[in-house]
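**Backbone description:**
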Amino acid sequence: MLAGLDFELLSLDDFPAIPDIVEDGHSYLENSLKKASIVSEFTGEMVLSDDSGLEVDALSGAPGIYSSRYDGDNATDESNVKKLLKELQGMPPEKRSATYHCALVFYMPGGTYEVFNGRWEGRIHDVPLGEGGFGYDPVFLLPDRGVTAAQLPADEKNRLSHRAQAFAGFRERWQNYNSDGA
């Protein structure tokens, strides 16, 4: 999603001394901002950080910011999906609407930042389908395409997803930042 942009991209693996960061915010933005600010303060670099999750309307927005640990602190993708499907058992398809959310923070040393958001609407399928993706992708059905996110080719998912939308916003901003320096 960032291919072709004029900068060197490093990961947390390039900075092994960065302390563990507890995601204890009350929103995707709070978690993303916390991660970005800690990493930027530690490294002195500009930082991109995101937080994302799945919100299911019938579950009043759950799992939400707890998506990665929905089934507890030692949750796996599979256990999270299993718990979600159990909670939706017997619910008709039209009541299984869901939205993936992403808050991407571009944080600059000194504390200024910009936020880019993405949303991807779908429905929770009653059985996992597909081998691609991660998290809830095997049950995140795209009704207009008739497939789950896990069944999409990676390049297509990287054009449509909540993260893709947030990164597209950043990409546009970065190109403007580079051309006008602001």
The first helix runs from residue 28 to 43.
